[in-house]
Structure formats: C-alpha cells, structure tokens
Amino acid sequence: MITQQQPTQGKVSSFADQLTAVGIRIQEDKPLPGMTAQLKLRSKDWGFAAKVAAQNKLRWSAVWGDHRPPKIIIRALLFGVDGHLLLQTEVTEGSPELPSQAEFFIVASRPERYLQDMFGVRFQEKKDNRRWIRHQAWLETDFPLRQTFPVAGNPVENTKPDNNYPFPAVDGEGVYQIPVGPVHAGIIEPGHFRFQAMGENILRLEERLGYVHKGIEKIAVGRDLDGLIRLAGRVSGDSTVTHSWAACQAIERALEINLPPRALSLRAILSERERIANHLGDIGAICNDVGFSFAQYQMSRLRELWQRQNQLIFGHRLLMDLFVPGGVSVDLSKDDILNLQLEIEQLRPEVEELLPLLLECPSLQDRLRDYAFLTTADAQRLGAVGYVGRASNLQDDLRRDAPYAPYDQLDVKVPAFSEGDLIKRMRVRGEEILISLDLLSKLLKQLPEGSLSVDYSLPGREVEGVGLVEGWRGETLAYLRLDDQGKVLRYFPRDPSWLTWQALEMMLDGVIVPDFPVCNKSVNGSYSGHDL
Amino acid sequence: MNGWILAIVQTSLLLLCAPLLTGWVKWIKCKLQSRQGAPPWQPYRDLFKLFKKEVVLAESASPIFRVAPYIVFGVTVLAGSVVPMFAIGLPTAAIADVIVLVGFFALGRFFLALAGMDVGTAFGGMGSSREMTISSLAEPAMLMAVFTLAMTVHSTNLASMTRYLLEQPLQLYPSFVFSAMGLLLVAVAETGRIPIDNPATHLELTMVHEAMILEYTGRHLALMEWGAMLKLMIYGMLLGDIFFPWGIADSFAPLPLLIGFLSLFLKLFLLGLSLAIMETGLAKMRFFRVPQYLGLAFILCLLGMLSHVILEIN
Fold first, then answer.
1. What is the chain B residue with the closest CA to A286?
2. CATH class of the region A220-496
C-alpha cells in the first residue's frame, strides 16, 4: 500500500497566469464559496484552455450548462492540489457552438455529448457527436434542459426504436459482437454493453447508458429547498447521503449559512456509514462474481446488520431524507452513541478477520490478481476518482485534499495502490472500511453539543453555489442556482460514475468475456446517478 | 422377469431421487455459508412449478429447439438406466457398455448445444461454444479412464466391472487411484459445478450450461433442469460403482437390495457433502484455465493407463 500523499499535481491558483501567458483573454471573477478560483473565457478559447489545463496536470471534473435566455452558460470544474477552479463561458442559444475539451480530457467526451443532447450545444471538431442520453425519445430539435421545453416533455405515441446507434465496427475474421442488456438476467440497473470479441477475447467494449434517465434536473426547477434535498436524495439510491450532502452544501454556500458543529459531525457520521455499507456490499459482490459466494454471504450479513442499525437509529436503512438545508433532521441520544460505538467494535474484528481470508484465498487470488489493470497513466488521463482512482494511485480524496467541515478537523488517511488491478480495487474498499470505522469512532467520541440545524433567511436575490463532497464512489458535485424566493432555477448533480464508467472500458485489455462482470463490479458505477 | 421389474424400479428411483441430491448439495452449501437455505426437497417444488407454467417460445425457434429438451432428458434417462444403482446384474446393463454411455452423454450434449445456438442469441451461442470446448477436452480424459479400468477388469460393461471388483480381494491398484482422480475432475467439469461452471449465477456472460438453456421456459426448462440433476446423480453413481462398489446388491433378494439401497444413499450423501464443501471453498476458475484443468485430468488418466500397463499386467 502507498502511504505517500500524492494527489493531482497541478495547481489551480496559477492557472490564470498560465492562460494569460499563452495569450488567452480571461476575466477573473470572485470565486463562489468553496472554490479557489473562477475564470471567464471567450467561447472560442474553451478548447485551448483545456489544453493548458491538461499540460499543467489539472484534473477535469465536470461540465454543465445553464440556460439563461438568450445565452447558455457553460461551466467546467477543474481540480488541482490547491482546490477547485470554475471555468465559465457562454454561447448564444441561436448558434451554440463551442470548441470541445474532449481532445485534451478524454473523460469530457460524454458530458459534452450530454450537453449537446440537453442544450443543443454543438461541439466543434469533435469526433464523437452521437446522441448520448436522449436515445430516440425526443425529436432532433428538442433540447429538454432549455427553458422553453415543457417539464412534461412532448410525448409521442410510440417512441422510435433505438436500434441504429452507430457503434464503431471492428472488422476481421472471427470478430463478432455481443450485445448485452439493457435488460439483464440479474436484478441490476439497465445499461447496454456492446462487446466486439474474437472467441472469448474482448477486443473492444462500448457502454451505452441513459436507460434510467428520469429528468432529475428538469423536475428540480421550481422546487423549494426541502423539496430539492428530497430529490437529491434520490439521484442514486446507494449514494443518497452523498448527493443530499452535496446539494445541502451548495445551498449553504449559496446562502452563506454556517452550520452548527453537531450537524456537521452528524452528516459525516451518516456519510461514513453509507461508505461502509456500500463497500461491504461491493467486496462481497466482487467475490460472488467469480463464483465465491461464501464472501458474498458473509459481507451481505455484515451489511444487513449495519443497515438494520441504520433503520433502528436513523429510521431508514439507506439513510434517506435525513438532511435538511442548514443541518440534519436526526439526532443521536447518549444511548444511540453507545450502541453505534458498540457496533463499530463488533464490525471491526469481523472485517479484520474476513479481509485477509479473502485476500489470501488462492483460488480467489487467481481470479482477481494481476487482471484488468487500469494503469496510473490511464487513471490520470481519465481523472478516475474514488476507489477506482486510488487503486491506480490517483489518490484525490476531497476529505483530505480539499477538506470541508468537519473533515478539516480530522486526519483522513487515503489508501492507494499503484497496480490498479481487480484485487486492489477490492483492497482499497477494505482499507477504506477500516479507516471509516476509525473516523466514525472519533466522530462519535467527540460529537459536539449544540443544535441540529440553523434557521436561514431567503437570499432576496439570485444566488448560486457549488457543493463538493467525497462520497463512497468519489468526488460528487452539486451545482445550484436559486432565485430570490429560494426556488431552484438550476440543479446539476454530477455523480462520480460519470468518470468511472469510462475507466471500465479502459481496463479490458486482455480480459475475456466471462470475466467482464467482475470487472464491472469492481468499478460499480451508478446507472441512475449517471443517467439523471 | 424380476430383473426387468427391478430395472424399471431402479430407473424410476433415479428419476425421483436426482432432485433430492441437487437439493441436498444446495442445502449443505447454504449451511456452510451460514444461511438458512431452502429445504433439500426444494428442487421438486421448482420442477413442479416449471411443469405447470406455460411454454414461451422465441419466434426464431426451430423444431430442434422444441425437441431438444425431450432428447436431452430421454438420453440422460437411458444413460441412467444402464448404470448400476443399487444392484448389478440387471438386464438393462446389457443394453450398453461404458463407451456407449459416454456416447449417450455426447448425444445429449450435441442437442443441448444445438438448442443453445438455435434461437440465435449471443448468450446461447457463447454457452454452446464453451460447452463444446470443455467437453472436447473432458471426453478424451473420460474415455482414457474408462479404458484403463476396462483393461483391468477385462470388460467394458459396467455391471461386470463392478462384479469383478467386488469379487477381487481388496487391493489398491495404482491405475485406479489415478483414474479415480482424473474421473473426479471430469465429473466436476461435466456436471457444470464450481470451479468450472457456476450453476447459481445470474451473470449471462459467465454462464456455460445456464447460457444454453437461457431461452427455455416451462416444461422445456423443467426437463433441461431435471436432465442436469440426473447427470449429477449418474456421475455420482458411476464413481460409486467403479471406485466404491461395496454394498451394491449382486442378487435380487430383499436384504442385499436393502443394503444396496442404503449404501447408495450413504455414498451419494457423502458425495454431495464433499461437493458442497469444495464448492464453498473455491472460486470459479478463469475460463481459459479450464483447458489446463482438463489437461491435468487427461494426464492423470494417462498415468493410470501407464501404471496399469507397467505395474499391473501379470
């Protein structure tokens, strides 16, 4: 395990100077709360700025649009060792042309296709302009996230079959295609995987997602803040705490609310509990996908006990709807704290006993070691976050590298490995469980007294905020713009799955078809969080 | 006449008991994973349920797809009827020797693989291709083991093999030890158990046997499932007959028959137990390791043959 700290290397604070040095005209704005810097660019410099960012080793994190007639504001988020930088430009809705950043940050390709589908932004000189999220349910001229588009959509009688998606062909003798999904034999979310294979060898995999598009961003518009948090908790069921926290943080930063320390600690407790539950489940599921069901049942048992405790103490197995703007809606009594501490002491020895057992089981090692590599170079090129990145030594963890309260008071260890194979992605999860247990006992021990939430006043003007939280899958973003009444004008949640789904396509070098499910499980991207 | 009645009874018992063996293995596995588990007779309920359900056929299904379940099931029953269960000397034993038995299995597999490809889904084709890869390596090993045994007992008839072994004083043949190990590996591969195939998986891409029957429903599926259960039982009986023949009845008197039945019960009980323990402790093997695994089986069987030729003749 690598203990040396090594987050993304670039610095966002010097980015403005670097842009000026190459002759890009920029306008430095006062950064939004939580951001280190904010730069406005002319739209024609959009692609070139990405090139400079890539050269300076910044990590590309997200891009999203915001329709403010007659303009569409485009924003991209970059991460450096000293924090986040917001890059902004605008295009007119009449001719929304923008240079693509995908050439310099491959991971930007799909988010740009998403922008193209939802806002009608046309990316110049971009190789891949295929539809991404829209499939055939909307007309070529419909752009759902423009303000003129009705929330209910323009339903057509029968949706056209989505059968001519142009997957690039791989030719050659004996090459064939395997279409998998969107309906699967197991109970998982829908997504389509297209393999080009030769015999059992995977030559190429391409994902096709978007089957669980729910219109989260569109239905968020006009909601009040409580309604928004409820919605944010449903972006992806397994990350309900993460997305709720990110949205709350965005609100609180926008409205400049200072949270009571007790609320912050409780939020962290909920977040770590979510992390532990999901990692427990994932470790079992990875083993189960290579036919080792013993691990699956042991881990499911631990996860089940953990979630029952959630139900008992917090009133919800997945910890849904416990966040409110300005605080939390749940408190812990002295007894609850004792119970939770006791539970930690029960879980830790079990995990400490099970993990080595799994990591040393020869037949499991045979399947998981030295297989499905994501190299450090690829992880950096991609900006893979969370456990996928950490297994390949891209360590970025906002709790350590851009800490938000209460993590700024805590010493968060980040486990990392350099190999990036299947078993390392499993080990990172195991180590994170143990680290989270430590954090939990510290948080419970030092739980400050005080109120659970604070009252806040509505802004009285249009405000915006960005929330950034390290969820169990990785860096999770929520962008929010509110009107003077506190109603939502724009909500954009970016699940880390946007970044990790693409890692899956890159790790299949030399992998055979029957081993794909375990590779998929080792990444475990969220379909719902991605499809919005 | 007695013999024929007994043969019919035996085959019916085989049909009846096969789901119990599968259920027993599943139940033990559940217990080993500290789960409550469905009772061992759950497979009966599953089969009953499937037989009641209507059959849904793919539009592209040809008649082969429809007849395959009957052929696969029928051939498996036929194969089962020639393997001594709790008595030897049944008239059915004369129908076929052990080489024909291997042929029966191959015939069933041929139709299974055809049916897998018939509907034209990617998974069916993948399953058939994998099944053929596995069996093309497993069959030579199995035949090699069979030949070794046949050379010792001077017969390829299963009943005479068992009788010969029972009449011999107890002695350890090196060739038998090697063949037993080889045949055990083959049996695990041929019945689709972990570490070769995972009968409990829901992951289409990893399936072998399940992928071929993915498109089946209702009674067709029931027959396919039942056929697979029979196959497990037949391999169990085969291993018992050849390597642990003690207890099997060599006359049709009630007492030997009872002992034969009880000993069979005990053998399958233990076999199921060891299968469950092995499946709990092992992960599934990477598919490209299967040739090595079956290569090992073949080498073991070959060693059995060599040690017979070198050590045991005279």
1. B283
2. mainly alpha
